[in-house]
Amino acid sequence: MATSLNLGFPRIGKRRELKRATEDYWAGRLDAEGLEAAGAALRAEHWQLQMAAGINSIPVGDFSFYDHVLDAAVLVGAVPERFAAIGEATEFPAYFAMARGIGGEHGIAPLEMTKWFDTNYHYIVPEFGPKTAFRLQAGRLLRQISEAQALSVPARPVLLGPVSLLRLGKSVEPGFDPILLLDRLLPVYAELIGQLQAAGAQCVQIDEPVFATGLGEAERGALRRSFAALRAAAPKLRLLLASYFASYGEDLPLALSLPIDVLHLDLVRAPQDLDAALAQQVAPGLRLSLGVVDGHNVWRTDLRRSLAHLRRAADVLGEERVLVAPSCSLLHVPIDLGAETALDPELRGWLAFARQKLGEVETLRRALGGGEEEALAESDRVQEGRASSPRAVHPEVRARLAALTAKDSRRQSPGDVRRGAQARRLPLPALPTTTIGSFPQTQELRSLRAQMRRGEIGAGAYEEGIRAEIERVIRLQEEIGLDLLVHGEAERNDMVEYFGEQLGGFASTGNGWVQSYGTRCVKPPIIYGDVYRPAPMTVRWSAYAQSLTEQPVKGMLTGPVTILQWSFARDDQPREQTAKQIALAIRDEVVDLEAAGIRAIQIDEPAFREGMPLRREEREDYLRWATEAFRLATSGVRDETQIHSHMCYSEFNDIVEAIAALDADVISIEAARSGMELLEAFSRFSYPNEIGPGVYDIHSPRVPGAEEMAQALRAAAGVLGSGKLWVNPDCGLKTRRFEEVLPSLRNMVEAAKAVREAL
Question: Measured between alpha carbons, how far is 310 from 304 in angstroms, rounded to an integer?
Fold first, then answer.
């Protein structure tokens, strides 16, 4: 019979237990032993849940206290020297310092952070250089295997493969290619594989998602050498190679030729890979893991369609050589739909979270052997009901979309003409200072929101509290000396969820948490139908903030691509169509903000780069419709209204021309944590509008000094010129404390004044 396996499971716990335990450790309310115990309890719970679902092969090593790429770097001893004085990176003080940095006068900058392929999960970027040395530190992974064995878990260790680890990292020296470290790294992996075999592992999963991005000759050669070394180190151990998120493409023959026992195919993103693999005449003994349950979205699986894939493979290979799996790790979906008792019953019937997806995997495994007709018939009814449901269609939205012309996605005048009109309406100094939008969400704010949700206070008391917080934030910004203010977003729970709660075609969950990075968890809304705006969403709060001050206050919105990308989007129509529906809803809000007297409006697109297809040949079409969606959202205003946008924690060098095509008057981009590396792109491409490269990293608790930020500004001015330069943090301040934010912003304003005076 076929076998079922899971590639990975969410770490945070049904009630975000890991988040709370970790933050308690950071705050000194929990010691290291207590945090370890919390992690062990979650691992045991999640393993037992997978066993109860009937999964035959369960991952171990997919758990992390912060990030699995950081764990992989620590596992092989790839720890930068600046953290050595803190202690061993296998212990929490140094481990969390690598992720978050250390504040204070002698602070230590953390490792960079960026997006995990095209997901909203952020990983910690390892640093590599010619002097990087590796040494195995496998104690934590080996202890987890022992824990699993004690619970009789059919454990399969999961490792990030050596080639992907090197490619996901960054070079600390210009011109150095980390892939040159492979010969130094492979002996450590070989030693690790040997230890896993000695510990009783029978199969090891090697994740090499670098396949999804397309390989060069250097990567192809590195993969051949890597798997040859791993096979030689443990000839009796079964090796499972997994890639996901995209097709293997032209590298599928390479994957099939490697000395492995199992090859995983993501048939949700790349169903064509199955026929391509079968046409290659899969080597005798090689088994295929078929990812037929979507690990990246929340819709129930069409069991009949997935079973057809499985049967096609079984007809060629035999059932015993077929493994049934999710398409990727279930890290990207919430844990259990059972907690969502308030969801509309019809919509709830269309959904599956991690626990339900495991059930679908096991149902498909059994169905491949015959039977499960009742489950298949129920799946058919769900798919038919969703396809015919009137709740998914809004005729007015579709008519409006069909009537669009090219003029609707163009501003009235070119950027240089707009700049003059905006300068007259917004008299700002050179190097104007601003923030990205959000200010810290205090415990008092969260309590206020919770009281409102529980019905303990009425709408009047809630709104009074929000107005008081907005006024406090306005006065703080005036006192600090910022030039373009924000209202602080006190009323918002999340930059996407907040809009999802107010837009038609969206549904919100009560406990649908997923990990974004570290302890930052979000509840992505669910797009189930055509999107529209029933009523204004932000206008009253922005207008109220503007009424409190003579200084300009930005309106703050989230852009259409980011709302699409950071939601669980419908899968029954092209993403382009959904993005443009969202864009029209945001356009209506932008026009209303302008009518309310808001002179600058920021439409954030931090997911713009993230949404780009991983395969290079598919990117041009995406960039076409993504830029069009942004311009559609922003082109309904007059020349004198300044449009801002923001992007963060992505690689921008290869899309700088597309960023320019957005035609935002001002764009702010993450730059501090990456050492202003984006300036390389702007040294080659003359960005036509104004830009604010972030001068300090808000994802670290450290408070940067004024001179440190002044140096970053001087570097930026040397490339961009001071006339186009804005001064701002890397990202929003929601996750920080006021004790960190206020001194940082004061230093930022001081830095801007110092550089301004020297112009």
Answer: 10
